Amino acid sequence: MVKNVRKGVFSQGQKAEPATTEDVAVAQDLLDTLRANENYCMGMSANMIGVNKRIIAINAGIVDMPMLNPRILNKTTPYEVRKIQRSAEDRTITRYDVIEVEYEDMDFNKKKQTFTGWLAHLIQNEIDRCEGEPVG
């Protein structure tokens, strides 16, 4: 079901709770909401639809991919990104061009995958949201 997207701050400072098998409907709602907003959004975290669970969804080109309980295992090739803050001064953060991510799919099968470039950047942004970090 498509949910309203919360604008602005999404549970900053509040770390998301781990997703469980009872949260599969939340993951589906997140996918539905991502698809409904595909004209301006390529990634979302569950807190963007008002649910404080560790679930993200990204548009990976021809497929939308849900990730439950994602975590970055390895990261290489750092670069700096200027983050534009809504309520504080801009700051610079480090992102990585190559990341290895472990996550669970909608059936809670463990997956491990390497992402590069834009998808790596996008996933890092959404994981930051799950960590309660501000994302510009």
Automatic annotation (TrEMBL):
EC number(s) on file: 3.5.1.88
Superkingdom to which the source organism belongs: Bacteria
Keywords: Hydrolase, Iron
MF-aspect GO terms: peptide deformylase activity
SUPFAM superfamilies: Peptide deformylase
Enzyme class: hydrolase
Assigned protein family: Belongs to the polypeptide deformylase family.
Name of the protein this chain belongs to: Peptide deformylase
